[in-house]
Amino acid sequence: MPLNPWIEALVALFLVAGSLFALIGAIGLYRLPDFFTRLHAPTKATTLGVGGMVIASMIYFSARNGSLSLHELLITLFLFITAPVSAHVLAKAAMQQKLRLHDSTRGKPWQQ
Amino acid sequence: MMARCWPHPLLSLFLLATWLLLVNDLGIGHWLLGGFLGWAIPQLTQAFWVRTPRVSRPLKLVGFLLMVVGDIAVANLQVARLILSPTRRLHPAFVEVPMELDDELALTILASVITLTPGTVSADLSDDRRTLLVHGLDVGDEAELAASIKSRYEAPLKEIFACSTT
């Protein structure tokens, strides 16, 4: 069954927006100067990247099957539960290893 | 009686909602099965709960979560802009934020929310749970960042969990 072109356009818009944020997250991983700033890129820019894809998937399957499809929301939920934990563990490990800080960083990490 | 059958009413509701989303079907059978799981899982895990968190304002919790989702979307755009602008203009900083919360669950939620909202990662909690170390990607003013974390996220959590302020 062909979809309404407006819905297809909306799905495409969210897919492209989500991909763009995932790409920006990857660029951040490459460009940012030290470990702690790089930590921000994957935990952050990607949340909106995954969010965009999840919304696109919800619209697409709701329109195709004619009934609301919400189980994609669980992806967001599990991501929100797990992402902070891994970021925290990475930050603690980095402080333990006394990784180099970017020159303009103010404040100090704690001694572990 | 009520407390013994439903030791964690919010957890039960949460499990029911997760079940319904997982099967992606709102048939009566799945409501019953989800309801049973929501009743049985808190019963079976009761022994592992050190201290039952008290959520005194459940509605406020929903509002808080919606606000956090909005903040995540807005701040994502800011981080995207920071990543694409020249990196030598960045001013990363470690900021110590004094904590007033004493509930374990509330502290966990606060630390997770700080990590999820772009631009800040919670790096460590001091052993006495009085200070949270936060790393900011681009911090203009450390005191302002600490104050905004306290007013925007800590204050509502304190109300929701009815924490004794020490």
Automatic annotation (TrEMBL), chain A:
Transferase among keywords: no
Pfam families associated with the record: PhaG_MnhG_YufB
UniProt KW keywords: Membrane, Transmembrane, Transmembrane helix
GO MF entry, a single one: sodium:proton antiporter activity
Stored InterPro entries: PhaG_MnhG_YufB
Domain of life: Bacteria
Membrane spanning residue stretches: 6-30, 42-61, 73-91
NCBIfam families, alphabetized: CPA3_mnhG_phaG, PRK12674.1-5
Protein's UniProt name: Multicomponent K+:H+ antiporter subunit G
Organism: Pseudomonas linyingensis
From TrEMBL, chain B:
Membrane topology, from the record: Multi-pass membrane protein
GO molecular function: monoatomic cation transmembrane transporter activity
Main location: membrane
GO CC terms in record: plasma membrane
Highest taxon of source: Bacteria
Membrane-spanning parts: 64-84
Subcellular location: Cell membrane
Keywords, in A-Z order: Cell membrane, Membrane, Transmembrane, Transmembrane helix
Keyword field contains Cell membrane: yes
Family annotation (InterPro entries): Cation_antiport_E (IPR002758)
Family: Belongs to the CPA3 antiporters (TC 2.A.63) subunit E family.
Protein name (record): Multicomponent K+:H+ antiporter subunit E
